Amino acid sequence: MNSEERARLVKATELCHRWHAEQQRKATQIPYVSHLLQVEGLVLEHGGDSDQAIAALLHDSLEDAPDSEERALRETEIEARFGPRVLDIVLDCTDTGRDEFLKKKKAWKERKDRYLEQLRRAPARTHLVAACDKRHNLHAIVYDVKTSGPDVFDRFTATPSECLWYYTSVIETLRSSLPGRLVDELDHLLEELRAQVAALDA
Predict the structure, then answer these.
(1) How many Cα atoms within 13 Å fall on the side-chain side of residue 55?
(2) How far is the C-alpha of 176 from the C-alpha of 121, rounded, in Å?
(3) Which of 12, 80, 108, 174 is the least buried, fewest Cβ under 10 Å from its Cβ?
(4) Is 55 helix (H, G, I), strand (E, B) or coil?
């Protein structure tokens, strides 16, 4: 990574903190930026370039905007500072439309169906970012359930079975364009989630 790419990543990290510094992971005291930084790390670990790493840092910035006006401003700023390629990846990784924002989103299933359709049309550069996002989220769910019990699922709008459907669908959509090691990691976590959901129904 050259000096220009490093400088762009620093700017994206600052923007990530500006937009997400007050947020926390669901029902925890964990700063939300920890998720974004770890997704960036996973993208780089699995061969992503600087545009993909920047998109990883900013992948939740649009759906987490406080209102539609701020969402539009964020789109403009991302494109102006980092280019259309980064914005396209962020848009592909966003499960809300331009009329939605943090406190006003459509029903969970409608958003996830739309997101899956976006991923089916998206290029491989988007797939890596989306997969690393799901890799980190899956790890958090699986290990939180292991350490804190099945009440962890109460944090989510979706039921445990719906969560399993969603992660299974995303992984199957992305599988063919991902590095083998990342696929293995996702499959391992998915099997653990499947076992946890089955245990709830036993």
Answers:
(1) 29
(2) 13
(3) 80
(4) helix
Within 8 A by CB and 6+ apart from 96, the residues are: 62, 63, 105, 106, 111
* Residue 101 DSSP class: B
DSSP-based helix, strand, coil % in the chain, nearest 5:
75, 0, 25
pTM of the model: 0.95
Structural domain boundaries in the chain: 3-201
Tell which residue, 65, 33, 52, has the closest CA to residue 92.
Answer: 52
Give domain 3-201's CATH architecture. Answer: Orthogonal Bundle (1.10)
**Residue 128 zone, left/alpha/beta (φ > 0; ψ -120 to 50; rest):** alpha
* pLDDT digit string, tens, across residues 85-137: 999 999 999 999 989 888 889 999 999 999 999 999 999 999 999 999 999 99
